[in-house]
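Lab notebook, bench 4. Still working through the backlog of constructs that have no structural model yet. Next entry is a single chain of 228 residues. Request: give me the structure tokens for it.
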Amino acid sequence: MILTTKETHWVKDRLNWYDIPFQEIYDEIADHILTGIEELRKEGNLQDIKIVYQQVVDEHFGGFMGIEKLAKEQEKAYKKNIGRLIWQNFKAMFTWQTFGFLTIMFIVGFYLPPVKIVAAILFGGLAILSFYLWFYAHWLTRNNRIQKGKRSLSDVFISKQGYVPIVVLNSIINLPNLYNFLFNGEDYQYKLVAVHPAAMTTVFAFTLIYCLACIRSCEHEFKSSRTA
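Model written out:
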């Protein structure tokens, strides 16, 4: 027996009582409960929606605490799956061509003069890569339907992958300056980029490969969520 629109809305509104911050998990649990209620209706259970709803929650989830527990477990599983997928794509991209690209970038770096304009160009390129993933994730999930008070699971965790190159960028800026500050004493002078161009070109190459691996993972996860 198909539920009425009023009953469906009641179930979804009731689920908002639980701590389910992500839209995708909320939708999965809602679909599961609605399917369970429809099956009971087909079996002849015509009791009030509140009673049937509670019966499904108790039998399928072990009560309301079971729903919140499941939501947290799914969140952890999703995060773990994203990390594993990115690592697999990252390793898969290390072919002979990739090693050749890294070698060329390293050699080119040695021929670049250690002047401000070169440092600014390399720094700018790395900065673009660092923030590109964050913008890409938001663009990819821009059409996801998110109700008020919820967040997109794919948007949040894919966006977080962009923090890795941002940390790398921050390290390039601050770690050499920290070393100079600790060991050069009074002669210390802060520099925006205090590393050799060869180091910058190599880091840029690795960051580019990482970003490409993340993009592949983003697209794979986005397609999977659309076909699920």
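Notes after review: The two ends are 24 Å apart (CA to CA). The CA atoms of residues 36 and 56 lie 6 Å apart. Flag for follow-up if needed.
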